[in-house]
Design a protein that fits this description.
The protein is mainly alpha-helical. It has a domain at 11-44. It contains two helices and no strands. It has helices spanning 18-26, 34-44. 13% of the residues are buried.
Length: 62
């Protein structure tokens, strides 16, 4: 299992509104975790999601 929890792409590639993206950046986040990168686009499509990942990987922040 890998310890690299961050995705290659940034939050700007996830389809977030500009105001949300600015808030994420202002909060000091620069790269989403893998679980965030996988779930956020699906949530924006109004799909039900279920994710499983280690503690501290950003599930709640998604």
């Amino acid at each position: 299992m890998t310890d690299n929890i961050h995705a290659e792409a940034g939050f700007d590639s996830l389809g977030l509104r500009d105001s949300v993206l600015k808030g994420v950046q202002d909060a000091g986040f620069d790269k989403p975790t893998v679980i965030q990168a996988e779930l956020i686009p699906r949530m924006l499509e109004r799909k039900d999601v279920l994710g499983q990942a280690k503690t501290g990987t950003g599930k709640t922040a998604s």
